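Project standup — Tuesday

K.O.: blocked on the structure for the chain from last sprint. Re-posting the sequence here as requested.
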Amino acid sequence: MPNHRSAPQAETSAANERAAYYFHQGTNYYAYAYMGVHAEQIADGWRYTFRVWAYRADAVEVTGDFNGWGALPMTRITEMGIWQAVLDSPIPLVGCRYKYRVISPAGTYLKADPYARMGEWGERTASIIPDDSPFAWGDDAWLHHRRSVMSSPDGFYPAPMHIYEMHVGSWLTRGGKSTVAGDAYLNYREIADELVPYLRQMGYTHVELMPVGEHPFDGSWGYQCCGYFAPTSRYGTPHDLRYLIDTLHRNHVGVILDWVPAHFPRDRHGLFEFDGYPMYEYQGRDRMDNEGWGTRYFDVGRNEVQSFLISCALYWLREFHIDGLRSDAVASMLYLDYDRKPNEWVPNHFGGNQNLEAVAFFQKLNTAVFAEFPDVLMIAEESTAWANVTRPVSMGGLGFNFKWNMGWSNDLFDYVSTDPIFRRHKHEKLTFSMMYAFNENYILPISHDEVVHGKKSLIDKMYGSYTEKFAQMRTVLAFQMTHPGKKMTFMGCEYAQFREWDYQNQLEWFMTDYEMHRKMQIYAAELGRLYLETPALWEIDDSWQGFAWVNPDDRDNNVISYRRFDRRGGEVLAVLNFGPVDRYGYSLFLHQGAEKYRLCLNSNETRFGGDGRAQTACVLTEKTDGGRILSIDLPAYTALLYLPQVGTLLLPTEGTFRD
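H.V.: unblocked you, prediction finished:
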């Protein structure tokens, strides 16, 4: 049986003393290497050191499989509440479950380890001693590529970014079972074998995983996390997740992870009132709770919480080679009055509604991340017009390098759900985004939030008949792909799943057996490949040098047209008809246009599900004062993309797809 001994303060090494000091100062960005449980091999076996922060506790014990769920007393080693115990064992304890028994004036609580690197999932809530053996990474070539892109002198992220947002548990299940069944989830390794070729085939550069931190409730989709350092065991071990990431990297696909620094659930075994009182959360009722989500806000002004969250962000970047973090619910942290009534919040000391502690936290977080990883993505889901989200901290910004453009998506969905007869009154919904397109570095999101809770799937948002919905969705995807900003689309949208996303069931892959859905998937793949191969669509996403309107004001015809440019003079001409009427001989004035344009994408082709009306492959322009006139036939609900004629353009061939 293992033997235990408490570690007195005098035995703490100088390194551990520094780690504890910096933890309480809010600057221990390796807190996970100090806190939690860590093993070392000794002459007669293994030594396990447990550390936990429980400020108001009178006593803390470790209990688990290794002591029959008895009591391993811990010793308070810092005045501010770090507790420590050491357990010697003749055998390794990898896989053993454990918890902390926290005894305080408020009561006695069994708590999972906040710094656990592995845990149980669902109704089982114990932490697990992980396998800390090294993982054999093989992604050096990808990491070199990542560094070269972010250090390019040609502009801010002058590379394509086409993100596939996915929920690991419902993308594909074992035998198509509902995830209510305990054996329905595929392992991270099994997911890799299916996911990687699909992403490559569809032209995605990155995959964004909805949160994979350990969480008790499937219905939270991972956004109510209890294990911030523990990849959920639903899909395997931490090394299994590393295998998935490594496989993606070896195939030149980046990995972005949804991360939740805003709030955590009220589950009693988790961070909630960890020592019997508010500790990780704010103490005042004006900031503590988000009643709409049933969660607690992190007290990001508290030093130990800063060490926890910033070291967590760096943990995923260091230990799992994650290429970027998308911070969820940033607006809820920045505003003191977020989702609160007038009498439910207290202004800051300047009298405003800005949470100054949250501002300082994000600046500290992003400064720490980019100091070590200048080549990663820090993405804010910020749903308001907060200024300078993606400006450097040195310029007074929050320090992120990308932000979701939720205004673009909300306006677009409002527009396409409107009867085309009345769209002329909402024409600015298509054009207003260019009024602020370069104020921040944007990602254009068609996200999971937009295809749930009665908002309808992307295809079903389109107004009109079955055929009209598909035609309009093809035009919407072309608009996204040609508008300034990087791209993100939620899984299932690429083949026009009609049913809203349901986390308890896998995607309806059988829909690709139907002609229109299969052709939409082909269209999405070809549009994705065209995007990757055309620098004008991604090289200058952050300034007017990469964009020019041709005609933004044709509201009566529901048509917009514009040009995208690269740094070598290449361009794409986009003409988008959001109306149900064919426009024959539609004229466009091009300032300094080419003599001839070649059609490189027609969303109305039969192979994409269109009616196949012939389009002229090459169109001559007519010279006029100050430019050229281009006259084209523009079918209803159609996107036409043109390139200047400089030779023969070889379009990608059609491929095969998952069925």
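K.O.: great, moving the ticket to review. The mean pLDDT is 94. The longest helix spans residues 515-533.
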